[in-house]
Amino acid sequence: MSKPKKHSIIKKTNLVQEQPIEYKSKSEIIREDVMSELLEKLIKKGIEQCDRGETTPHTQVMAEMKIKHNLKF
Fold it and tell me: Tens digits of per-residue pLDDT, 46-68?
């Protein structure tokens, strides 16, 4: 009767990982709420601009970036 290999047992137990617990202060939670509201307002503004046709085509933006930043791709 052979003995089980110890290293194979050790390898398997090292695979178990606990999820990190993230604690947030009260000020961080409040800040996230404010940022969520701001982000929502900005997204709505962007959608309204798109609906009014106030957009710039991607090809035009890329052409302007290439010129402005001297990019060659």
Answer: 999 999 999 999 999 999 999 99
Task: For residues 55 and 63, give the distance between their C-alpha atoms in angstroms, rounded to a whole number.
Answer: 15
For residue 63, give Cα distances in angstroms to 13, 50, 51, 66.
54, 21, 24, 5
What stretches of 21-73 show up as alpha helix (H) in DSSP?
26-51, 58-69
Classify 53 in phi/psi space as left (phi over 0), alpha (psi -120 to 50) or beta: left
Task: Name the most confidently modeled range: 2-6, 28-32, 68-72.
Answer: 68-72
**Whole-prediction pTM value?**
0.44
C-beta separation of 49 from 55 below 8 A: yes
CA dihedral sign of residues 46, 48, 51, 54: negative
